[in-house]
Design brief:
The complex is a heterodimer of chains A (335) and B (252). Chain A has 335 residues and is mostly helical. Chain A has helices at 2-31, 39-48, 54-87, 100-113, 119-142, 148-172, 174-185, 193-212, 214-220, 224-229, 234-256, 262-274, 278-302, 311-329. Chain A has a single domain (2-329), classed as ABC transporter involved in vitamin B12 uptake, BtuC, CATH 1.10.3470. The two termini of chain A are 26 Å apart. By secondary structure, chain B is an alpha/beta fold. Chain B has a single domain, classed as Rossmann fold. Chain B has a six-stranded mixed sheet, with helices on both faces. A four-stranded antiparallel sheet of chain B has the order 2-1-4-5, with helices on one face. Chain B has a two-stranded antiparallel ribbon with strand order 11-12. The chains are: A mainly alpha (335), B alpha/beta (252). The A-B interface holds A 1-7, 89, 212, 214-216, 218-219, 221-223, 225-226, 228-233, 271, 275-277, 334 and B 45, 48, 50, 70-75, 77-81, 83-85, 87-90, 92-94, 97-98, 100-101, 103, 105-107, 130-133, 135, 153.
Chain lengths: 335, 252
């Protein structure tokens, strides 16, 4: 039973570390920027309400919405990636593989092509596009039994098809390319609290629902035949989990644009430390994904201040080498 | 008791079983043998409804299996497929998944579930390894872990598709002895084996299949010394007696 205790204490240590990272990242993200806030000023601005001083306005209208957006997007994308990797038994899977980015990208290109440039229109279109693309993938795979392979292949086919249409639109209508460029780079500079309201309800609720299905995810990962013989309708459960993952990632993409690597790298990092049991992986991904994105956004704002990099670009720039390092560290073992 | 009657089953575009009828007794080990592609695995998969039956009936204690929900079926019949994943989880966690059919949403384990899991670990001699990761175990220990999961499923019937594949000879015999213990405690075991020596040693009933049909069924001695087995495999079997019982020798 010694191993069991070691596993549990490792998981507990990781969770504590992730919570500390999250709190530090949140605090730094709120306090540091073009105009810094010290702890005393932060406390005063929090208590006094939004319109009492310049510091309070910065806090309530800029820093808090932006930090909340980072936390929500990070948690949503990391959990979505963890679910997709588990359900498809594919460690290279991420929200992009089930068409989320391609669907959202096409919907935003269509939205911009029609001249609807408001942030609400872009958010709504990208969410609907992401979710519809996933349903298209699931329906495609359903025809052939919704096996893991057919979902991945369906995702590749649907992604290629939707990307081709998007490229066609932005080639024919240059305004659409310009207007959707921010969305495709991914970031939080255009976030405001109004845009966050739907996602701030959807994301926590869906994460809790997914967590309650942790046992289903683990049983599904035993293989379709074993899961089936344990009484599970594998196709239904797989599709349900993919749909929930799509809603999560779609909600994040709706206000943050396309953020690469979070859904791939954070679940990898988490599983490397605490194993693959979903009841631990889901909350650990939510916490560390939120902290990771908040830190990346902070770095994106500060590295070349006063210029700001889109967080999505920085994430890919940092995520790629980090992922290669992880692969090297795992040489000889399963990724 | 499982009664199969005039079962036609297979895949959408290919019928594999062509009118299989057989009765498999309670509390005994029934072993299905036959050349590759004879429909052995398809028969097991049809019993657990992994493949839809095209026509025919399968009864468990005179009740059609088709009338049971997936969850009810999982409480009656456990199935150990030929290929199994090795997830990055502990032995205890895998065995606990055997209780899945009994859990209602949101899947909390009861005291009774934990007791059953503890007993399954004890029966398979895995208590000491409960906290070990599955991927750190030997092939034999992993196989026992899956058997413990099936035991935690607490079903009347256990189906196993080539459960000794990939195990060394010692682990094969240990595993089959454990299966014998289970049958002696009242479980109905139906499994696929290829080794005639083991069939002779462990089977209470042998079912010989060829091209999706049952050619012959009966006691191991009777089937293994029959002309039918020689025709089906195109081999020659010899049974011989020694101090420690009957043995089977096979020649091309």
């Amino acid at each position: 039973m010694k191993n069991k205790t070691v596993n549990k204490s490792k998981t507990a240590a990781f969770m504590i570390g992730a919570i500390v990272l999250l709190l530090v990242a949140t605090l730094l993200n709120i306090c540091i920027g073009a105009s810094d806030l010290d702890l005393e000023g932060l406390w005063k601005a929090l208590l006094s309400g939004p319109d009492t001083s310049a510091a309070a306005r910065i806090l309530w209208y800029v820093r808090l919405p932006r930090t909340a957006a980072c936390l929500l997007a990070g948690a949503a994308l990391a959990v979505s990636g963890a679910v997709i990797q588990k359900v498809l038994a594919n460690n290279l899977a991420s929200p992009g593989i089930i068409g989320i980015n391609a669907g959202a990208g096409l919907a935003v290109a269509v939205c911009c092509a029609f001249g609807w440039f408001t942030s609400w229109a872009i958010a709504g279109f990208s969410f609907i596009g992401a979710v519809c693309a996933t349903f298209l993938v699931v329906i495609t795979a359903q025809k052939s039994g919704a096996s893991k392979t057919t979902v991945v292949l369906g995702g590749v086919a649907v992604t290629a098809f939707l990307n081709a249409i998007t490229e066609g639109i932005i080639t024919m209508i240059p305004d659409a390319a310009l207007a959707s460029a921010d969305f495709r780079a991914g970031g939080f500079s255009a976030v405001n609290s109004g845009r966050l309201i739907p996602a701030s309800i959807i994301i926590p609720v869906v994460i809790i629902v997914i967590w309650s299905l942790a046992n289903e995810m683990d049983v599904l990962s035993l293989g379709d035949d074993t899961a089936h013989s344990l009484g599970m309708n594998t196709a239904t459960v797989r599709n349900l989990l993919l749909a929930l993952a799509a809603v999560l990632a779609g909600a994040a993409v709706s206000f943050a644009g396309v953020l690469g690597f979070v859904g791939l790298i954070v679940p990898h990092m988490v599983k490397r430390f605490i194993g693959t049991e979903s009841r631990s992986v889901i909350p650990a991904c939510a916490l560390s994904g939120a902290g990771f994105v908040a830190l990346c956004d902070l770095a994106a704002r500060m590295l070349f201040a006063p210029y700001e990099l889109p967080a999505g670009i920085l994430m890919s720039a940092l995520g790629g080498p980090f992922f290669i390092w992880l692969l090297w560290k795992r040489k000889g073992k399963r990724v | 008791m499982i009664s199969i009657s005039e079962l036609y089953a297979g895949y959408e575009d290919k019928e594999i079983l062509h009118g299989v009828s057989e009765t498999l007794p309670d509390g005994k080990i029934s072993v299905i043998i036959g050349p590759n592609g004879s429909g052995k695995s398809t028969l097991l998969r049809s019993i657990v409804r992994l493949l839809p039956e095209i026509s025919g009936t399968i009864l468990l204690n005179e009740k059609p299996l088709a009338e049971l929900s997936r969850q009810e079926l999982a409480k009656k019949i456990a199935y150990l497929p030929q290929s199994r994943n090795v997830p990055d989880i502990t032995v205890e966690r895998l065995v606990m998944h055997g209780r899945f059919p009994y859990l209602s949403y949101p899947r909390r384990y009861s005291k009774e579930d934990r007791e059953i899991v503890k007993k399954a670990l004890e029966m398979t001699g895995l208590t000491e390894l409960a906290g070990s990761k599955l991927e750190d175990l030997s092939g034999g220990q992993r196989q026992k872990t899956y058997l413990a999961m099936v035991l935690a499923q607490d079903t009347e019937v256990i189906l196993m598709d080539e459960p000794t594949t990939w195990l060394d000879i010692r682990n094969q015999l240990e595993f089959l002895k454990l299966v014998r213990t289970l049958a002696d405690s009242g479980k109905t075991i139906i499994m696929i084996l290829h080794d005639f020596e083991q069939v002779l040693q462990f089977a209470d009933k042998v079912v010989l299949m060829e091209k999706g049909k049952i050619v012959m069924a009966g006691e191991a001695v009777k089937v293994l010394s029959s002309d039918e087995i020689n025709q089906v495999y195109n081999i020659k079997t010899f049974l011989y007696d020694t101090e420690d019982g009957l043995h089977c020798y096979v020649k091309m």
